[in-house]
Design goal:
Elements lengths: L8 E3 L11 H27 L6 H30 L3 E3 H34 L4 H4 L2 H27 L16 H5 L7 H34 L4 H34 L5 H26 L1 H19 L1
Antiparallel strand pairs: 1-2
Helix pairs in contact: 1-2, 1-9, 2-3, 2-9, 3-5, 3-7, 3-8, 5-7, 7-8, 8-9, 9-10
Length: about 325
């Protein structure tokens, strides 16, 4: 058993029962990361180059793509190092930095999903005031507020963990560093760290999920008050992409939080799969969902591909 006594190094792990370096796992993971980069990069490029998409909804979608990129790129170095290169050691300082970026971008993504829910609320409940309420200036301020909250609320967590001594086993449960996983290796009393971490989660993802739920309660009420069946379907269809993004993000997050606190008896592979799903699946699926369900984005991507094909034939 590895020990952290006198060392400043953690041992990252892959899937239980597999070799540290497993190309059967590394190859699909590389494909997921490439798909994530291609999907979010294309989404950002299309929104940036098409002036008709320079609206509050697509500005928020750009923020979601940036948060997804940040979340995935935070895990990319260690995940590929573990599964592709077989390199499993990571110094404490690098682990704390990675932990900070993972949780920061996670909080930022949660905040962006709240802003997108409020965007849908105003668009459906107060359509006549949409343009006057959700201005570009307001969206910019909201983006900075979400970014500032995400980076600041996680900073004390990283500072507190970095100052703590580690002992016993220095083996982590994942190929990346998560706060809950690192905290179990700390020597001494971790009550304050745990309480602050729990408070930070409640003040970010807890309040965010309640805000999203409340927004959709009012959205559903507004949709039910629409007399035309066709108008109801059209109004609800504008929310499907966002609802998918919320479920893709929050369902694995809730599952991971519950298993970390109450599922210690579960097989280790359960924790690993939930953590990988929480960090890897949303950045891959979000651009696919929005490209598929949002007609404007889909048509722009298809149009540009057709133009490129025409130029190549010419």
């Amino acid at each position: 058993m590895s020990s952290c006594n006198g060392t400043r190094t953690f041992i990252l792990t892959g899937f239980p029962g597999l070799l540290t370096s497993s190309y059967w796992v590394a190859l699909p993971l590389c494909c997921l990361y490439l798909l994530m980069l291609l999907g979010n990069g294309t989404l950002l490029w299309v929104i940036r180059t098409d002036r008709s998409l320079h609206t509050p909804m697509y500005y928020l979608l750009s923020m979601l793509a940036v948060a997804d990129l940040g979340l995935s790129l935070s895990t990319l170095p260690t995940v590929l190092a573990v599964f592709w290169l077989g390199s499993s050691s990571l110094c404490v300082e690098a682990c704390v930095v990675q932990m900070y970026f993972i949780h920061s971008f996670s909080a930022i993504e949660s905040g962006v999903l709240v802003a997108m829910a409020l965007d849908r609320f105003v668009a459906i409940c107060y359509p006549l005031h949409y343009a006057s309420v959700l201005t570009s200036a307001l969206i910019t301020k909201a983006g900075w507020a979400v970014f500032t909250r995400g980076t600041c609320v996680v900073l004390p967590v990283a500072v507190l963990v970095k100052k703590m001594p580690f002992c016993g086993s220095c083996v982590l449960s994942h190929p990346f560093c998560l706060h809950q996983d690192v905290l179990r290796l700390v020597c001494g009393d971790t009550t304050f760290n745990s309480l602050y971490g729990l408070t930070a989660v409640i003040l970010t993802k807890g309040l965010d999920s309640l805000t999203i739920l409340l927004s959709y309660v009012m959205i559903v009420r507004a949709i039910l008050n629409i007399t035309s069946q066709e108008a109801r379907v059209k109004a609800f269809s504008t929310c499907i992409s966002h609802l998918c993004a919320v479920l893709i993000f929050y369902v694995p997050l809730i599952g991971l939080s519950v298993t970390h606190r109450f599922g210690k008896h579960l097989p280790p592979v359960t924790h690993v799969l939930l953590a990988d799903t929480y960090l890897l699946v949303p950045p891959v699926l979000n651009p696919l969902v929005y490209s598929w369900k949002t007609r404007q984005v889909r048509s722009r991507i298809l149009t540009r591909r057709c133009r490129r094909g025409t130029r190549q034939q010419g």
